[in-house]
Amino acid sequence: MTIVVATWNVNSIKARESLVLGWLGEVQPDVLLMQEIKCTEDAFPRQGFARLGYGVAVVGQKNWNGVAVASRHPIEELARQLPGEEDAQARYLEVRTAGLRVASLYLPNGNPVGSDKFAYKLRWLERLRHHAACLLEEDEPLVLGGDYNVIPETIDCHDPAAWQDDALFRPESRRGFRALLWLGLYDAFRALHPEDKNAWTFWDYQGGAFQLDHGIRIDHLLLSPQAVDRLRAARIDRRPRAMPKASDHTPVLIELD
Q1: Around Cβ 247, how many Cβ atoms within 10 Å?
Q2: Which residues contact 240 (CB under 8 A, 6 or more apart)?
Q3: Position 19 in a domain
Q4: pLDDT in tens, 136-195
Q5: pLDDT recorded at residue 1
Q6: Is 35 part of any domain?
Q7: pLDDT for residue 5
Q8: Given strand 219-223, what is the order of strands in its sheet?
Q9: Is 145 within 8 Å of 33 (Cβ atoms)?
Q10: Does residue 233 carry a pLDDT above 90?
Q11: Which among 236, 162, 145 is positioned nearest to 196, based on CA atoms?
Q12: Model pLDDT, residue 37
């Protein structure tokens, strides 16, 4: 049996409900990790997901942030906040579903560099590294998926020079991302497509970025060794980004045996 896991920063589930549900009905992943849902738990439109056969776990926040996991399998909530620091922002949800330990995460943007927001981003990365190290000791299939707000390498950016001073591409941010890989996690997309160019997951709304294909890759699915051994496919689905009223992000999917 194949398990399909997807991640998608939906940029407001209320604004994007019909788009997300239409995509779910067509693609039918087993698990969808969502970020930036921008609503409280009570306001999340669970009924539409239920009609398609999905249960939903939500960590919400009014108008900002927010993460969720939708699954066609039973969901056991494990953590509703990233350990290591009291955090008022809804950015992390960890569950067990479909035989996997899965987290939906929305890493801070961090701009402007040099501000408290950038310091918060770097602390969040360090907290994630520490927690991921603990999770890897559990020796189970693990998927840490979401909007990392990190461009890992120059190949992951249409114009590295234009992003060199942005928090998403700063050396400190990239160093924090690499520290996750050094633990023994694997970037699922790059594991199967190490040299693919123009593999973007985000295009800004401004400047005709999507039409010009000026994108970046910041949405990632990181896998434990037990999960990457089961990895059979990884792809970016650009189609939702071309639709009316689209999110500025698009889904990333993996298939696991």
Answers
A1: 24
A2: 8, 19, 23, 246, 247, 250, 251
A3: no
A4: 999 999 999 999 999 999 999 999 999 999 999 999 999 999 999 999 999 999 999 999
A5: 85
A6: no
A7: 99
A8: 76-79, 92-97, 100-106, 142-147, 219-223, 186-187
A9: yes
A10: yes
A11: 236
A12: 98
Q: Residue 164 contacts by C-beta under 8 Å, 6 or more apart in sequence?
A: none
Among the listed residues 98, 116, 125, 89, the one whose alpha carbon sits nearest the alpha carbon of residue 6 = 98
pLDDT of residue 36: 98
| Sequential DSSP letters for 52-89 | TT-EEEEE--TTS--EEEEESS--EEEESS-TTS---S
pLDDT score of 186: 98
Q: Which residues, at least 6 apart from 150, have a Cβ–Cβ distance to it below 8 Å? A: 107, 125, 168, 169, 173, 174, 176, 177, 218, 220
pLDDT at 230: 98
Domain harbouring 178, CATH code: 3.60.10.10
Distance set, CA 255 to CA 38, 89, 122 (Å): 28, 30, 30
Q: In the predicted model, what is the mean pLDDT of the chain?
A: 98
Q: Which domain holds residue 137?
A: 107-233
Q: How many whole angstroms from its chain centre is CA 66?
A: 12
For the chain, the domain total comes to 1
pLDDT in tens, 189-205: 999 999 999 999 999 99
Does residue 146 fall inside a structural domain? yes
- H/E segment holding residue 172: helix 171-182
For residue 137, tell me if it sits in a domain.
yes
* Amino acid letter, residue 142: L
Residues 75, 183: Cα–Cα separation, whole Å: 27
Phi, then psi, of 15 in degrees rounded to 5: -70, -25
And the tokens for 56? 């939903």
> Quick one: pLDDT at residue 99?
98
**Both structure tokens of 129:** 């590294």
Q: What is the pTM of this model?
A: 0.98
